[in-house]
Predict the structure.
Amino acid sequence: MKTITKSLLVGIMVLSLLGCGGPTLDTSSESARKESAQKMVSELTSPAEKAAFKKALSGIYVVGMFATLGGKISEEEAVAKIDAKVNGKTVKEIMALAAELKQAMNK
């Protein structure tokens, strides 16, 4: 429970420190995704913000990959769906999406 509370507090802190603008995630290719994610991380000021963003983004992809466990879709299809969901989103939007997913999983 303490870990969840701590994660939520870090997420709220990141959201409160970030403006609406800033770089967005480009998922047009794997290299574009990595480059844009790195640019987004470099725009963050504190190590806690950077860690929270990396955790949120990777968490979104991990949750999305659960769909492959039943064999209904391939990894490529899962990544494509996740890419479509996060493409063009800012750090703030990605953090919010991760929080929504986390909340939905805890129900």
